[in-house]
Specification:
This protein is an all-alpha fold. It has one domain (4-217). It has 13 helices and no strands. The protein has helices at residues 4-11, 15-24, 33-49, 57-68, 72-76, 86-103, 107-121, 126-131, 135-141, 143-161, 171-180, 182-189, 202-217. Helix 4 (57-68) runs parallel beside helix 6 (86-103) and helix 6 (86-103) crosses helix 10 (143-161). The longest helix is centred in the C-terminal third of the chain and has 19 residues, at 143-161. The two termini are 26 Å apart. The relative contact order is 0.16.
């Protein structure tokens, strides 16, 4: 069944999460489960293409990963794509977006992000991983590491979209990131919001992948 995994995730989460996901992806017809599924189809295939589109959530995540340029060799680790779990590709997407965002910060802002990450993760290796571009390693330290990165990525958008995330551990980081990136910078980071009739809306799909990853790794679901 197309999007079966996505549907299961949004069915099992809270109304607030579904509302936030609808806001992030600009779902104009609400945020109930079926509407969100249909909206993902629309974002991926367009207004006409969605009528014929029949792919899985894993394929959507893979397409996003290809678009933003994740390191597939590091993600696959000698395996084939069919052997990967969807959440592994989601993690790679979160790590890539976080790294791209981190690289845009000034040295002072990077230090603030590192300090806040260390405070939340209690892992002494965090600074070295971030400064050497090994964000994917930070993400793999724990599910909470993925959650922390995903919520930090999304935190930069909350004030603009009026979204309230359920935990505040990311606030120190997201405030620094929001200052340097802001709404205009976000458009550049995620590829803009240009969207023709039957072309994928990669920026909204990327936000959907990051938010689903945050849901999966939320402390509330552990």
């Amino acid at each position: 069944m197309p999007l079966h995994e996505f549907k299961k995730i949004v069915q099992g989460t809270t109304h607030k999460h579904r509302h936030n996901l609808g806001k992030l992806t600009a779902s104009g017809f609400g945020s109930d489960v079926d509407t969100l599924c249909n909206h993902i189809r629309y974002l991926r295939a367009g207004s006409i293409g969605q009528l014929f589109w029949d792919e899985s959530w894993k394929q959507v995540v893979t397409d996003v990963a290809d678009h933003i340029g994740i390191e597939w060799l590091a993600t696959l680790k000698g395996r084939r794509w069919k052997q990967l779990e969807t959440h592994e590709i989601e993690t790679a997407v979160v790590a890539k977006v976080f790294q791209d965002m981190f690289d845009r910060l000034t040295l002072e802002q990077q230090e603030q992000v590192i300090m806040e990450t260390q405070r939340s993760s209690n892992d002494p290796r965090v600074e070295a991983f971030l400064l050497t571009g090994s964000v994917i390693t930070v993400a793999k330290v724990s599910g909470f590491g993925v959650y922390l990165m995903a919520s930090t990525v999304l935190g930069g958008l909350t004030s603009t979209l009026g979204i309230t995330l359920p935990f505040a551990v990311y606030m120190g980081m997201s405030q620094a990131i929001a200052l340097v990136i802001g709404p205009v910078g976000w458009l550049a980071l995620l590829g803009g919001l240009s969207f023709t009739l039957n072309q994928p809306n990669w920026s909204r799909l990327t936000l959907a992948v990051v938010y689903v990853s945050m849901i999966r790794n939320s402390p509330a679901t552990k």
